[in-house]
Design goal:
117 residues, 24% helix, two-stranded antiparallel ribbon, binds iron/sulfur cluster
Length: 117
């Protein structure tokens, strides 16, 4: 699937552990990225300083759902579900009764699906 215009959920809900221009220490989950524009686009989409994990995060039905609200709910749940013992490069599986199962590999997001926005 393609990234949904006017969403930006993953640029808010996810934590990023690598530097972002304007956020040298990355960003915590739930904090809006300073590079997310008012119309919910990435201001540094083609800039080489854009974190590699942003470019590597691919939209998916599981993650993005049908709306920004669904994506935010899913991503917040996933952040909570994967916090303890997170390791870069490790493959994780997560599921809950209200969201579909998903597998993903630890990346510079606290979690990340394989693959960008
Ligand atoms: S959650 Fe999905 S649809 Fe929303 S901005 Fe991220 S990749 Fe795009
Ligand atoms: S894609 Fe752009 S706006 Fe989104 S988190 Fe990454 S740097 Fe920030």
């Amino acid at each position: 699937m393609n990234c949904r215009p006017g969403c930006g959920a993953c640029c808010i809900a996810l934590s990023i552990s690598t530097p972002i221009p304007g956020m040298p220490d990355g960003k915590p989950s739930g904090v809006r990225c300073v590079q997310l524009t008012d119309d919910l686009r990435c201001a540094i989409f083609t800039d080489p300083r854009r974190p590699a994990c942003c470019a590597g995060l691919k939209p998916s039905v599981e993650m993005c759902g049908d709306s920004q609200a669904e994506a935010l709910a899913y991503l917040r749940w996933l952040e909570r579900a994967t916090k303890p013992g997170f390791e870069f490069g490790k493959t994780y599986s997560a599921h809950a009764s209200n969201v579909p199962a998903v597998s993903f590999v630890g990346h510079c997001f606290t979690w990340a699906t394989e693959g960008g926005m």
